[in-house]
Amino acid sequence: MKIIDLQQVRSALEAPDRDCVSQDAFGRPLFHYGLEYRFDGRVWTLSLEAYSFEEAERRVAEIRAGLHLYGQIYRLSPA
Known about the structure:
By secondary structure, the protein is an alpha+beta fold. The chain is about 30% helix and about 30% strand. It has one domain (about 5-65). The protein is built from 2 helices and 3 strands. It has a 3-stranded antiparallel sheet.
């Protein structure tokens, strides 16, 4: 008889897809979070990486407090 741990199965089903999780330089998981805002009657989205939902909320609070535009991006270089 095989025993199935339903909590483990549930956790696996509720976990984010692999392409929605990256790792930092130390191998710790960084989760991707979506943000949205309204501008000129439309909804726009941004994303950020954080170690937890709580950290993502703290990052959003810091963005609200100190975001500034530093210039237009002209070229993206591969890492």
